[in-house]
Amino acid sequence: MSREFDIVIVGAGIIGAVTAGLVVSRGLCAPNRVAIIADRFPTDFDANADWELRVFALSRASERVLRECRVWERMPADRRCAYERICVWDASGSPQGRGCVIFDCAEIGEPNLGSIVDARVLQAHCLRAARDAGVVFIEAALRGLELSDASAHIALGDGREFRCKLLVGADGTASRTRELLGIGTAGHAYDQDAMVAHVRSEKPHQNSAWQRFLPSGPLAFLPLPDGRSSIVWSTSRSDAARLRALDARAFSAELSAASDGAFGACELVSPIAGFPLQLQYAEDYVAPNAVLVGDAAHVVHPLAGQGLNLGLLDCAALVEVLAGATGAQQVGDLRLLRRYERWRKSENLLAAAAMDGIDRLFSNGNPVLASLRSASLGAVGQLPFIKRQFARRALGLSGDVPAFRVDRSSPHR
């Protein structure tokens, strides 16, 4: 195996695999000059297994990114579910009346508002696509890293060493790459855990995503293709611990009450998983011959399901910037990488601030704010132009987004 690569990506998650796939798709370097390094590459998924507890709500922009690296068409139809509406309401209102706003794909001329996908299956197909494209997979832990003006020198836990022109840190929230680069983070932990599980409900989900804002945090119902829903229930850590300790019948009763009876009786049909929530952002995204993408660069509250979507836009933006290199610029040129940092850092910080602000506004029991929340949601529901702008932004169809090249003809940025 060559000891030199053009681009090495640390992390075998969705973001790392997609970055590799886009690099090859854009022809930035030969496939065998791109490598993914990871402690462990996941085994392939069992087609007969149930949906993973973790699901992602993918925007139209994310779908286009996945189409470009030839992942989207690989996803089995029974592992994705397009949703046509989003209903959001405050605890003081109702899902069809006061304090509610409904976004409908017909209002913006789109076939849907996004798709819910199985996290494990999506990761497997992203890795398959990268491997099929000729990307080299190296299974080992990242032990050391040294940067020079011309390259990054990588030391692995098994003793192997490599050099590359650009190192991409796509290794998640607790990024080892970010740590070795000496890049600090800022942010704060929320006093919330998110619980995820699958449920059946008495009333159908209507191919819609539903979210109710409770004083302790948001509760979301995301549609699955077999009629079930995947829930993401964010609540205080103490309450989450209490809820996870309940038996299935008691948890189902609490869930039915928390959803305001919008779905009738709910039945828990899976285990419950939970994880703590935090806001975190890297102080820098780049260093000479090194760059951060996805959760290694930013982590936001999951209340709008934008975490993976922001990461996939990072991938597309980085590759677009690299494709626009001029003259003698190399892919690791710091001036080139700064363009990516300026572009994505501003967009990601704006999204993080918006999610943080929404959580602070809705996740409390202040009666004055309750009235303000209800009035605000009701007002948005009565303003078609504002609703369209919110929906298009969430879909990744507006804002400073990359020029997607599914048709291979769009100009570089």
User: CATH topology of one domain, anyone?
Assistant: FAD/NAD(P)-binding domain
CA radius of gyration is 22 Å
CATH architecture of one domain: 3-Layer(bba) Sandwich
Approximate strand percentage: 25-35%
Principal-axes shape call: globular
Order of helices and strands: EHEEHEEEEHEEEEHEEEEHHEEEEEHHHH
User: What is the H level of CATH, i.e. the homologous superfamily of one domain?
Assistant: FAD/NAD(P)-binding domain
Specify the CATH class of one domain. Alpha Beta
Helix coverage percent of residues?
Answer: 25-40%
By DSSP (H or I, 4+ residues per run), the number of helices equals 10
Low-confidence stretches: 406-413
Number of strands: 20
Give the biggest sheet: 9 strands, mixed
How far apart lie the N and C ends? Answer: 34 Å
Overall average pLDDT? 90
Helix/strand-derived category reads alpha+beta
Task: Summarize the topology.
Elements: E1 4-10, H1 14-25, E2 34-38, E3 55-58, H2 60-68, E4 80-82, E5 85-90, E6 100-104, E7 115-118, H3 119-132, E8 136-139, E9 142-147, E10 152-156, E11 161-169, H4 176-181, E12 185-201, E13 208-214, E14 217-223, E15 229-236, H5 237-244, H6 248-258, E16 266-268, E17 273-282, E18 286-287, E19 290-292, E20 298-299, H7 307-323, H8 334-362, H9 367-381, H10 384-395
Parallel strand pairs: 1-2, 1-11, 2-8, 5-13, 11-19
Antiparallel strand pairs: 3-7, 4-7, 5-6, 9-10, 10-11, 12-15, 12-16, 12-17, 13-14, 14-15, 17-20, 18-19
Provide a descriptive summary of the structure in words.
The chain is of the alpha+beta class. The protein has a domain at 4-76 and 117-187 and 278-360: FAD/NAD(P)-binding domain (3-Layer(bba) Sandwich). Helix content is 32%, strand content 28%. The protein contains ten helices and 20 strands. Strands 5, 6, 12, 13, 14, 15, 16, 17 and 20 form a nine-stranded mixed beta sheet that branches. Strands 1, 2, 8, 9, 10, 11, 18 and 19 form an eight-stranded mixed beta sheet that branches. Strands 3-7-4 form a three-stranded antiparallel beta sheet. β14 and β15 (229-236) form a beta hairpin. The chain is globular.
